[in-house]
Write a sequence for this structure.
């Protein structure tokens, strides 16, 4: 290993949580099984424009994905074999409430009870994400996250799930990456529901923040012993130009990309001064919202893959849409063109810790997609091993300087359906043949297993 890599995972200590993550829509398939209703991602991935083109880059859908709705026991056995003590997975709201509201679909809820039980039987701790982007289409038809009523429907969904599973689930995450829900789903249209509207962005931003605060209290009311968290994509945004004007753009981008999601949860409101763009949220704020948006959290999940770059525009607060990729200093790129910048994770952890408000921080996602092939039963993904070793070195360094980060979840257990990118990118520690659904542990999976005491061996 190079000096900037962590070769010995045990260096992070015996109290460190090692986990691996997935998301329901990306792995489950079975889009109508057992009474499931459609989600916005079912709708989005089946859209065609007048030229017959789909919004998914490779034209695939998640109708089968990794077939994990039926193969969940096999997948949990892989988590155990790789040596991970925790499995982060999400619940599909439209499986549990097909219309987004009561009545509850008992068959869908019972499925997740079986998944939780399988984790516990395997000695793997379930970490449950309540919302990982797959909003019931029926709620989208009524305005989705642009409608204030969705906040209340979300809180009711949280209550239903916590009452059903709270006796067996300790760790909960309210949302996965609101940044992508709000910006990719409501400004760029690159992700479901595919909206392209600034008013939609402002409404969704505020309503997701409000749902996080109110949802945290609904969860605690239903499960007083819950360990409650939420996750955010956090990154040092970098402007594309030199000089003081670029610094202005960076501060505005930081306000929109990071602070607009974190600070309302802490009772600090929106950072209007750094980004006048955010003044557009004001019409959606009602009396009491500043208090209601404050989240009662035990931990914050930090998610980081690469820095976000916000190209400069000369009017503070107005900037082009943030984007991944575009190496400026010779950084290595993933197969999606994302820069590999491990130090960005350290900067993100420091930025969160600087608030002095989060007593526990967990890296709830990190990983990379690379071109790779299954040859003679093996996938030699040494670049992924290097990626994890370098990022985990940043976690170790952050712990050494007092940041209370005590867990890391690799993304992902399996190659899966990577949202608008489709089935082409491969992030998994386990290779999936999408034709046969055969699972093959990659060298990166064996690397974790060797150090974490897993039973998997080449």
């Amino acid at each position: 290993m190079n000096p900037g890599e962590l070769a010995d995972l045990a260096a992070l200590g015996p109290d460190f949580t090692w986990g691996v993550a997935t998301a329901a829509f990306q792995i489950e398939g079975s889009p109508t099984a057992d009474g499931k209703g459609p989600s916005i991602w079912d709708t989005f991935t089946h859209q065609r424009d007048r030229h017959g083109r789909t919004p998914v880059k490779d034209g695939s859908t998640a109708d089968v994905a990794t077939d994990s709705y039926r193969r969940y026991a096999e997948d949990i056995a892989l988590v155990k074999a790789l040596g991970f003590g925790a499995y982060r997975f999400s619940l599909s709201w439209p499986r549990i409430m097909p219309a987004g509201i009561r009545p509850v679909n008992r068959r869908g809820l019972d499925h997740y009870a079986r998944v939780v039980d399988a984790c516990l039987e395997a000695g793997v701790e379930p970490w449950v994400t309540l919302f990982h982007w797959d909003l019931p289409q029926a709620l989208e038809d009524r305005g989705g996250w642009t409608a204030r009523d969705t906040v209340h429907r979300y809180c009711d969904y949280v209550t239903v799930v916590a009452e059903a599973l709270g006796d067996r689930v300790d760790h909960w995450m309210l949302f996965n990456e609101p940044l992508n829900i709000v910006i990719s789903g409501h400004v760029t249209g690159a992700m479901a529901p595919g909206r392209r509207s600034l008013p939609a962005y402002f409404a969704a931003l505020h309503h997701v923040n409000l749902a996080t605060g109110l949802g945290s209290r609904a969860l605690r009311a239903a499960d007083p012993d819950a360990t409650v968290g939420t996750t955010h994509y956090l990154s040092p945004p970098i402007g594309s130009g030199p000089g003081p004007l670029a610094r202005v753009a960076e501060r505005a981008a930081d306000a929109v990309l990071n602070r607009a999601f974190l600070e309302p949860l802490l009772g600090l409101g929106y950072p209007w001064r750094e980004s006048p763009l955010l003044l557009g949220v004001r019409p959606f704020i009602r009396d009491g919202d500043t208090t209601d948006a404050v989240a009662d959290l035990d931990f914050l999940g930090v998610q980081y893959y690469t820095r976000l770059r916000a190209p400069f525009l000369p009017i503070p607060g107005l900037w082009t849409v943030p984007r991944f990729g575009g190496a400026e200093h010779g950084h290595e790129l993933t197969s999606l063109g994302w820069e590999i910048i491990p130090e960005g994770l350290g900067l993100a952890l420091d930025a969160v810790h600087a608030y002095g408000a989060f007593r526990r921080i967990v890296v709830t996602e990190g990983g990379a997609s690379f071109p790779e092939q299954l040859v003679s039963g093996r996938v030699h993904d040494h670049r992924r091993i290097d990626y994890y070793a370098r990022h985990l070195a940043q976690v170790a360094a952050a712990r050494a300087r007092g940041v209370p980060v005590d867990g890391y979840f690799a993304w992902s257990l399996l190659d899966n359906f990577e949202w608008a990118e489709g089935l082409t990118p491969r992030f998994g520690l386990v290779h999936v043949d999408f034709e046969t659904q055969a699972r093959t542990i990659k060298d990166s999976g064996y690397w974790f297993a060797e150090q974490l005491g897993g039973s998997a061996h080449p």
In short: Residues 312-327 have pLDDT under 50 and may be disordered. The chain has one domain: 9-452. The longest strand covers residues 227-233. The chain is about 35% helix and 10% strand.
